[in-house]
Amino acid sequence: MPPSTPYDAQRGDEEHVLDLGGGRQVAFAHNGPPASRTVVLFFSGLMSVGTARDVPEPCRDLGVHWISPTLPGMGRSSARAPGESYHTALARDMTALLAHLYPKGDFDTLYVAGGSYGTVQAQMLFGAPYDAFPAGRKIAGCMLLAGFSPFKYHAGHAKSLNWQTWVSVGPPSQLVPFHLLQRLTSSFLAAKFRTLDGAKDFLNQTLFARMQPDERATFATWLNRKGLTEEKFITRLAKGAVNCCQTWDGFIEVSDVIHSDWGFNPATLDADHASKPVLVVGSEEDHVGGSTNDWLAANYKNATLKMIPGGHISSLFYMDEIWQAMIELSREATK
């Protein structure tokens, strides 16, 4: 018999729902030893739900407990209460989730990480005051894959965005009243993500059909290593997208959240927060996100910028290397 492992792909795919009270809930997936004293909170981006199917090898070597929540207002996760700031609600919800999984708070190390829009939530927790997010005291590092900057403090953000992102989350998205742009976009996307085939076609055209030959070769090698076919992988992503689009509340507020007060300014974090490493990862041919990576690297005092080949999702193919770099940075910071 093969040796037992605390990591199981099927268990990592299972969706769990935590009742937060007040008619709200948060959906999440998790994988790894539930009593591990090292925790990863990973936030995925738009058109996805939390999944913990594939935990990177360096994290497995550490024996981490990988937790991936579904973002507020997406999938089966409730939106924040009306009138409540996003960063406050997020910190409270994640405190409740960690308390549910660790009733005694018996973990020592926390990594917060995210991809694309999920980098917003990772940063909100990283910079949150400790009275709002007590687990922040245990944060050992923050990883941002194709990240967004806080537009409130990034004065020149509009100049760094490509035209699609400029329209969707840049100035037009804040100037047109009643979320009309967001509602039009969500209506268009809802037609695409109503069926699995529609979601597969959209993801294939926006992410995979644009791959250059070198990235496609890297993608093929990665698929082979994971025992996947391209069809199976895209189908898995499409299922997550369809599940995410059960509700559009979270999608409609994306621009508002990115432009909002995140509860802190990266450039003026206190010494304890600022001492913790931030790994900013960008893809050289990313035409979807990551255009504010330079600002992030310049404004977090202990930031490192790592560039990798490929497009928007290419970090998937280098995840082991990226996580090894994150772990090494956190060790250096504590010497």
UniProtKB/TrEMBL annotation:
SUPFAM superfamilies: alpha/beta-Hydrolases. Pfam families: Abhydrolase_6. This is Transcriptional family alpha beta fold family protein. Residues 63-318 form the AB hydrolase-1 domain.
